[in-house]
Task: structure prediction
Amino acid sequence: MITDKKISFKFDGKKFFGFEGDTLASALIRNGVFLVGRSFKYHRPRGIISAGSEEPNAIVQLESGNITEPNVRATEIELYEGLNASSQNNWPNVNFDFGSINDFLSPFFPAGFYYKTFMWPPKFWEKYEYFIRKAAGLGKSPKEDDPDKYEHFHYHCDVLIVGGGLSGLYAAKLATKANLKVLLVEQSSELGGEKLNVDYVQSALQGSVDNVLETSFGISLVNELENLNNSNNLKIIKNTTLFAYMHNNYLLACQKIKNKNIRQIIWKIRARKVVLATGSIERFLTFDNNDRPGIMLANSVRKYFNYYKVKPRGNIIIFTNNDSAYKTAIDFYLNKIPIKAIVDVRKESKGDLVRKARNFGLKIYFNHGVINTKGRKKINSVIISEFDEKLRNTIGKSKKLSCDLLCVSGGWTPTVHLFSQSRGKLIFRESDATFIPDISFQEEISIGACNGTFELDDIFEETFNKMKKLLSEFGKEIQDKNREGVNKIFQDKIKHLWVVPSNKYFGKTKMFVDFQNDVTAKDIKLALKEGYRSIEHVKRYTTTGMATDQGKTSNINALGIISQFSNKQIHELGTTTYRLPYTPVTFGALAGRHVKEFFDVERTTPIHQWHIDNNAKFENVGQWKRAWYYPKEEEDMHQAVNREVKATREGIGILDASTLGKIDIKGRDSSEFLNRVYTNSWSKLGIGKCRYGLMLGDDGMVIDDGVTSRLAENHYLMTTTTGNAASVMSKLEDWLQTEWPELKVFLTSVTEQFSTISVNGPLATDLMKKIFVDFDFSSENFPHMSFKNIQINSISCRVMRISFTGEKCYEINVPSSYAKSLWSKCFELGKEFNITPYGTEAMHVLRAEKGFVIVGQETDGSVTPIDLDMSWIVSKKKYDFIGKRALNRSDTIKEDRKQLVGILTKDPNLVLEEGAQLVEKISKPPMAMIGHITSSYYSPNLGRSIALGLVKDGLKKKGQTIFAPMPDKTVEVEISNPVFIDPTNERLSA
Amino acid sequence: MFLINCPYCGEREQVEFNCGGEAHIARPKNPPDLSDDQWADYLFMRKNIKGVQFERWNHSSGCRRWFNIVRNTATDEILKIYNMGESPPNINGDDPNTPSGEPNIGSGNISSTFNKK
Result:
């Protein structure tokens, strides 16, 4: 509601004043600003035409910098102090727009222009694209981080009512009185809808005229519901647009909040029943130059006057094909605002409103139409003419009338967008050319104007009957009609005139259908002429209805025009699908709180802070942040990694391996379970021993690897790769629950309960002796591939002597809360051995020197254990295990599969690129590829580069020279054994 | 986007669950006896019906339990939820109640009459 509190705001840099309760659009009109933007294709001056979410022209860029929002409808922005908006799609400014040269060039911009002109010859597209992309589009997206917060709310209710007009309010009242949980969503800031806020305003003011009963009824309904809000299970949310109706009565709404901290809220609503009461939208008429600023929808003009108290000035002309526009004339007349003329395409009308206008002595031109308009940046006159019998041609001499405001009405379109999104079926009603809901697909009803019911008496009748049925499905009964009889206004028939005749050659006219995408009637005619028949094709070719407003004011006109030109009935053409969202939704709202650190979980080990304190660089491994390398003062990555690798082979390297997946396996059948999921045999593994396992999919491809230790007869600890921890766990559960319910096995993830400290190198044992002072670390007591529980300060650690570097290594699994202190203790005690922390990069180099594979690097889901030359781990004795059968498929046993080999460059200093392709012979491209590099590093211990790769039949080709063709040169390489250091495992067992 | 009534936890959002594909495809007990074609059939061939489909679901962000769902994939209507190991309920209606105007078999979908060789 408009108050007298003044509010200042800026539009295109200029300061204006409006009132509290204004929208940006009403405040601009109040200030006489009609020109608010330039059109998309021709850069024609455009003004506000409506007062609601259907607005195609007044699309503005709201605010600037990090909070800017593009493509906002000025008709939906509630004015606030200091608001700053600017017009879009113009340069340098809206009054002088450089792009408007397009308008004078317009004969060269027909439908499909971009497709036809710029796509040929194809190579030129690259050059055109830059300019076209620059010319296209409307607003600008923000370039900085959005400082505001957005929330997502979940809401479950019995009945969701969309629309707070009188039908929605009445339905809400009935449902609330029946003690159901009701949510009412209203797009604007006030309840009452068009009827109460526009239709009945004058009758309330004038006292004696029509609709007094309706008005008082409406007002009491609004008051009653406002009082019930937040009690009795009724919740009303205003300033909220319901923009998506999805499966199973799941709906999304976006609420605008004035609160400075939270900008918008997405409501995720699940409703048992949905009541759509979304009203209707007025149509435009299609006549020559119908897009000048100052040409508006008749009922919107009336809304600006009745609701926003904006008084129109100058010569007002009304152009209509139906009775509803006469309401505008009557309201103005009653307020002593002169109407210059009403131009009605119909021969006559016997409607009550027309009779009234006649009685007031208003000048009405029947069988006439506005055939052209004048005025570049604002309308200044219209040309009207009489029509022939069939309304196809003008007759007689046309007449020029000066005009400052042209109010147009082409009838009404029920807002069936949400019904259509819910996948309900529409039906065409011939009498007023509307698509109305026919067959529901979900638990939903449509009432009021969105159902094609426009008169209040009918609306109440319909709402009552439909709600009675709906509530009975909840087991609720309503009896009393509890409403007063209301007057019915008789309205005469509408006359559909999809294209208003012109005295010009049709090809010279500019009759806009879709204002936002600049589609004219002649574009549509051209598309039909070029052979487009399906409505969906015409839509895409001409782009009509494809702008951000989705053709709310124009779709039915486009259909009508197609029907007229193709001599087909509209119901034969069908209608295009209404897509969500109903109005554009910001990415910020959709993302909600799922941004920055909440976008994806970031996992860190308990030792993480130490890595930060010691200058570690990090890399992402799945969700984990892992220490990558630890550069000292001047070191670059290469130098740091070399130092870490060398120190590990010469003394002690220490790695935080806490991210490895750890699964605790218990139960009677644990050994049998491992036999089934790993390729090798587990039954005979001694207690306190460790074994390496390869896990396959049932397609025979490697999916994971790791060491599993037998802690007790029926107790194992499995380790998985960092990245696969969750998927392996879930796959194992899958087998257990769905295929082998007879196995008694219980899986528990202990990845985060234990941290893993890996102590590597020839001096590792010396350090271990200092940490666990009383323990016997001799190879007899604690050999390679064995497991011990060792106490330190009465904390039990699970220590495994296993190795991923080829060096003697102890992996200490310590309860996570002690991990950081044990890690620090290692450094304290290891100082004399020059203990060196190493990161994941050095880990990769160390394992590659030893020829150990990394699942996911050497393998890619198409690699079997045989391909990895690891047939030693595949049991021949077991009758079955996951993946076994597939290892004997024709494809997995065929010759020339890619196999894992070492790759050595002839030039020892050259490090190949990972992913480099390998060929047998250099020839003119294309060359036959025989493999690729999977891992490639510089090995400081060997003083040369090393690489692993998958090469067709590679195992038979060791020693052979092949090539890696790179963009700048060809690299000569030799196929080698993949184990570069200590092939006899002397270092491991030392 | 829909709710699933987990037999162990109750009604939860679909985002908490993972779909494990077509249900009632038992892993053969005698893999070595099967031909390559038979094994490939078990491994790769799955129905993707527009309409009533029997599926495995896992409450992966909840109790981690697997169970079966009979779902109309065209409408996301859940017709039945039952435990692993139970035999499939007798639910007819390969012809789904598709949204208005759509063919029962959409483009690219394997028809419900698709037969394994």
Remarks:
- The two ends of chain B are 35 Å apart (CA to CA).
